Amino acid sequence: MRKTLLGAVVLVLALQGCSADDDSSAAPPSSGSHSLPPSAAAAPSGEASAGATGGPGAVGGPAGSPGPTASATSGLGEAPAPAGFLDGKRQVFFLPRLNETELPDSVLAVTGGGRLQVTDDYTDRALFVPVPKGGGAPERLIKTGALRAGGEPFCLQVRAAAGTLTVVTAACDAAEPAQLFTFEASGRDEEGRTTYAVRNRAAFLQWHPLGATGLVAEEIGDSALETTFTLQDQGAAKLPRA
């Protein structure tokens, strides 16, 4: 599975590299121009500060305290989701996109250890149901579409561990800030479907395929948003009645 995903990443990066080469050859910079490299212009990641200040279940602060305002959402679209995708009536696959490029054979799924990761496991472990918190709030719980404990679904929750914010499964609790996610339209995929940035307060779900962390939640400040998601419909939700 890891070889398959790494192969997909290498293909995506290669295609992006070819595109960059074509652009540079078409319009070479003048000899007198100077610009900062992307690493110098980008704001530093807030992942370390978030992990340092939060305990288990915290993002950028203790549970229950308001999180910092996310500045990375400026410029993101505000188009509403298709009916049912975000109102708890449909179960979906989360298909990750890296730098607005679709990743083949890749889907978010719960691993055997209970952590959310990018995998090629298109089974019940990859089914999720975004359910509104209620009261007109924009946040949503992300419930497991098929995985159960005592007949009840799990909910995704951000957890701080060893300076990294990971996403794990936990018993659902709409009063737990670390379980409340916001979906913000970011564009369209190749089939015209809305793509979304997904965040818990100021920490966005981001995938680092070439590192050891994999999928994490991190504050990105003014840096470019690298990971977005297409929601692929998988039929009516089968959650137990509340």
From TrEMBL:
Region (Disordered): 20-81
Signal peptide range in chain numbering: 1-20
Bias (Low complexity): 25-51, 66-75
Iron-sulfur listed as a keyword: no
Entry annotated with the keyword Kinase: no
Keyword field: Signal
Segments of skewed composition (Gly residues): 52-64
Protein name, per record: Lipoprotein
Gene source species: Actinoplanes digitatis
